[in-house]
Design goal:
668 residues, alpha/beta, Rossmann fold, six-stranded mixed sheet, 31 strands, 37% helix
Length: 668
């Protein structure tokens, strides 16, 4: 049988794995993720796994890609500049569900238009105002999002707006009704904005991955992992990149189950940027039907019920100066480890660290470096941002030599938010190098960075740490503590009998924390996890034994834990879900809401038959397009009704059709 190639592109590493017959790992490999040109890291990982296995490119019958890039971008608040066309809503609706915050000052226009709950036009669409706005905007954004009132009941105005935007700007358009069939306009608009912000990033990833596969002589179909763990064809992921949020974590759950056979466990996957925790029950991950939450955003995208925290091996170490004791916290922003950037630019980094360490006066930006990210859209930048980018150029620089005044801090932060520059600073990876837990990169640079960070003064005037080793232990202890909080918060959230208070508060409560230490005075308090934890990720073996000790649970670290995402990427199934709604505005009138104008039927049975036929055909078409031949179909429905004058009155029904199957494996 042909080999299966799974690839996972994370914030730090790109992993590749070859699997034979869906049961045996033939070989695995890692390479650094190359953000400036993702094809380089992908190609390096694939070449390495081919070399380790002795396999030929023609032996590969299926390729599949999972990624944490979309998740990381949302957690870190990054993405390209977008424009929102908001139809039929009010200006104050922009404040709902964090929509205004998600826009980050990007252009938005609120227009007349939209439909009512039955799909009838409420107000004519003001196309002239949209044309004038697009002319004034001048194409300064990378993509547009369009959201119209009750577009899931009638998408006509979104379709008109999208066609007009495409004609005038030729930029990608994200339509809210194509991303969710549910009501709640502001939340759909938020999802559309985030989708638009990710389009360029995911499109580049797929293009570069496909190009690299072709150059290597691999002609097998390319699949992408969705946030619910299912596989979809690459072309669909290009237009719906929001569905790839939690792609990597979802793949890790599929991989965890495949590697361990566990039925009931917590799965914790530590990457460079995030820690992703979820529950396996009866061997299956739960789906968060309320919509995936990533960072501060609750989307309308169905995905695994994953609890994502901005905590990883490359999390930025931040100094907390409040109080007499002071201390540190990790994340949520990722930065390049000092030990890594010193390997990549030793002539710049090591001399700068040595100069800073030799100075008797600590500098505000000691131990921080910056470089630009090429091949990223630079639309809509102001004069200060442009000047700062030119000053950085194509080299690595100490941050203190780049920022010449405090007035440039806002421009600096904006460049970070838009993914145009990368910052290097102290991370847990550096602490692990100094303690001898890792030896991948430059340990001397890590030691110097730890010494510099430890010179910070607490409110009492004391040094944060006396030497590099003490500082390193402080960082690792903080990672253990924050990982424990993430696991406890997930466990409290997913308890079948909720405790009541917010899970985050319970995880941090003094009783919980004293119980972890086995407090025994007049009161005995004992807390911990009552299930096993499956630890995944390249650094799981480094950090997670201490986490298991803290929580008093068995920590399972399976073989190939470091490439579980890549394994899960290629052993999953294609799953396509299609939903439609039937409403009744008056007795004997049943309206079917599908892709275009609603259709009215005189009987409920005819309406259900038409909607079932339409959704099933759509699901079959998309599933076949993803290479599935043996398709399983499951139908489910939810009906809302009310009693009036002793009889049942139909109000609304939602029908879901799910088509699934394994993708076709190309002949070798």
């Amino acid at each position: 049988m042909a080999l299966l190639l799974g690839v996972d592109t994370g914030g730090t590493y790109t992993d590749a794995v070859l699997i034979r017959d869906d049961v045996t790992v033939v070989a695995s490999a890692k390479s650094l993720t190359t953000r400036h040109d993702l094809a380089l890291g992908i190609g390096a990982a694939i070449r390495a796994v081919l070399n380790h296995s002795g396999a030929k490119p023609s032996d590969i019958g299926l390729t599949s890609l999972s990624t944490t890039l979309a998740t990381n971008a949302l957690v870190e608040g990054q993405g390209e500049r977008v424009g929102l066309v908001y139809i039929g809503f009010r200006d104050q609706d922009l404040l709902a569900h964090g929509l205004s915050d998600a826009l980050k000052g990007d252009p938005v226009i609120v227009l007349a238009g939209g439909h009512d709950h039955s799909g009838k036009e409420a107000t004519p669409f003001d196309t002239r105002a949209l044309e004038n706005w697009l002319d004034a905007d001048g194409g300064t954004v990378s993509a547009y999002a369009v959201a119209s009132m009750f577009a899931t009941r009638n998408p006509a105005h979104e379709l008109i707006a999208a066609n007009l935007i495409t004609k005038k700007t030729n930029r990608p358009v994200s339509q809210s009704h194509q991303l969710s069939a549910k009501l709640n306009g502001p939340k759909r608009a938020l999802t559309a904005v985030l989708n638009a912000r990710l389009i360029g990033m995911i499109d580049r990833l797929i293009t570069q991955a496909a190009g690299e596969l072709k150059s290597l002589g691999i002609n097998a179909p390319l699949m992408i992992v969705r946030g619910d763990g299912a596989l979809v064809r690459a072309e669909l992921a290009r237009t719906h990149p929001i569905e790839t949020i939690l792609s990597g974590p979802a793949a890790s759950l599929v991989g965890a189950r495949w590697l361990t056979g566990a039925d009931h466990a917590l799965v914790s996957d530590i990457g460079g940027t995030t820690t992703d925790v979820a529950v396996l029950r009866n061997g299956r991950p739960a789906i968060d039907v309320a919509g995936a939450r990533v960072g501060p955003y609750r989307t309308m995208v169905e995905a695994v019920a994953m609890h994502t925290t901005g905590l990883g091996g490359d999390s930025e170490v931040q100094f907390v100066s409040e109080g007499l004791q002071a201390g540190i916290k990790l994340g949520p922003r990722r930065c390049i480890p000092i030990s890594l950037i010193a390997d990549q630019a030793p002539d710049v980094v090591l001399p700068a660290l040595e100069r800073q360490a030799a100075s008797s006066l600590p500098g505000e930006h000691d131990g921080l470096f910056v470089r630009a990210v090429p091949n990223v859209a630079r639309d809509g930048l102001g004069e200060r941002e442009i000047i700062l980018l030119k000053r950085i150029g194509s080299s690595v620089h100490p941050l203190g030599e780049i920022l010449v005044s405090r007035l440039e801090m806002s421009a600096y932060r904006l460049l970070i938010d838009h993914g145009l520059i990368q910052v290097s600073g102290l991370t847990p990876s550096d602490a692990a190098h100094a303690l001898g837990l890792m030896n991948t990169w430059n340990s001397e640079a890590a030691r110097l960075a730890l010494e510099l960070f430890g010179r910070r003064r607490t409110g009492a005037g004391n040094k944060l740490a006396f030497n590099a080793l003490d500082m390193a232990k402080l960082v690792i202890d903080q990672l253990t503590h924050q990982t424990g909080l993430a696991l406890l918060e997930c466990a409290f959230t997913e308890e079948e009998a909720p405790f009541g208070p917010p899970p985050a508060d319970l995880a941090r409560h003094v009783l919980t924390q004293r119980g972890l230490a086995g407090h025994s005075g007049l009161v005995h308090v004992d807390t911990g996890l009552a299930v096993d934890v499956i630890g995944l990720g390249a650094s799981a073996a480094t950090y997670y034994p201490a986490v298991g000790g803290l929580l008093g649970c068995k920590m399972i670290l399976p073989g190939y834990a470091g490439v579980a995402n890549a394994i899960g990427a290629v052993v999953g199934r294609v799953t396509i879900r299609k939903r439609g709604t039937i409403t009744s505005s008056s007795e004997g009138q049943f309206r079917v809401h599908m892709d275009g104008e609603p259709k009215t039927f005189a009987s409920k049975e005819d309406a259900f038959t038409r909607l079932t036929s339409h959704l099933t055909e759509q699901a079959r078409i998309e599933t076949r397009a993803s290479g599935v031949e043996d398709i399983d179909i499951i139908a489910s429905q939810t009906i809302k009704s009310a009693k009036a004058e002793g009889r049942e009155i139909f109000l609304e029904a939602t029908l879901t059709i799910e088509a699934s199957g394994r993708p076709r494996i190309a002949d070798s």
